[in-house]
Amino acid sequence: MHEIIEEQVDAYRRLLVLAKAKQEALVSGDVAALETAVTGEKALLRTLGWLELRYSEACAALGRAHGLRPGEVQDLLGELLDRREGSLAAAGLKELADIAAQLAFVIQANSELIRRARAYVDFSLGQLGRMSCGPVYDQTGAVLPPVRDAAAAGVSKRV
Questions:
Q1: Which residues lie closer than 8 Å to 20 by C-beta, 6 or more apart?
Q2: Residue ranges of E strands in the chain
Q3: What distance lies between CA 40 and its chain's CA centroid?
Q4: Domain over 2-113 is classified CATH 1.20.272
Q5: Strand partners, 137
Q6: Distance CA 136, CA 124 (A)
Q7: Which of 80, 83, 125, 141 has the highest CB neighbour count under 10 A?
């Protein structure tokens, strides 16, 4: 059991490294690095899904051996395993929780960076559309009423 947990810890550590790399790529605007981080995250998420399945199956088997449901196994893991295995599993689960908390923080920060970047792009596109006097669309795809920008009008008169 602790071997599976150790594999999960290792995978989540790598996921945290990739999330931080994604953050650096978002801040610096490095599209190639962002693509590399996202590709790595996808691969790790598949691995984590497979590890979670193995962990669930191990918990179910342990529960069946002791007449417990899988949900009850998690709470009693330290008692159900021998002393060494239980100690290693508990340490691994604690480390997993610590990494998950760090990862949640980085993901939240990355989400905010992406939200702000999108708002900047939307604003910039809106400004460009207004300057060109062409149609401007809102988030639903509806055409916004034309707004004559004094600066853009001055530029177009001079040109």
A1: 106
A2: 136-137, 143-144
A3: 12
A4: no
A5: 143
A6: 11
A7: 80
